[in-house]
Write the C-alpha cells for this entry.
Amino acid sequence: MRGYTMNKDDYIKRLRRIEGQVRGLQRLVDEDTYCIDILTQISSVNAALNSVAVGLLHGHLGHCVTDAINTDQVEGAAKVDEATAAIARLLKS
C-alpha cells in the first residue's frame, strides 16, 4: 500500500483538472492570447502541481518513511535519504 492510496481518487481528479488546464494553455497560445494572461495560467498550473507534490510527500513521510523507520533503522535511514532527495528535486523545479 502506498502513502497516497487512501486519497488516490482525489489525486486522480486533481491531476485530470491540471491536465485540462494544460490543454487550456495550448488553446490560449493557439488563439494568440495576451502573454501575461498565459503566464498567469502557467502559474496556476505550477501551483496546482506543487500542491499535489506536497500531498504526495506528506503521504510518503507519514506512511512509507514511518513504516520503514519502525521496521528497520537502516531501511528507515534510506527512506529518509530518498525523501530528502525528492524534496531537493522539488525545490529545484
Notes: Helices lie at 8-30, 35-71, 73-92.
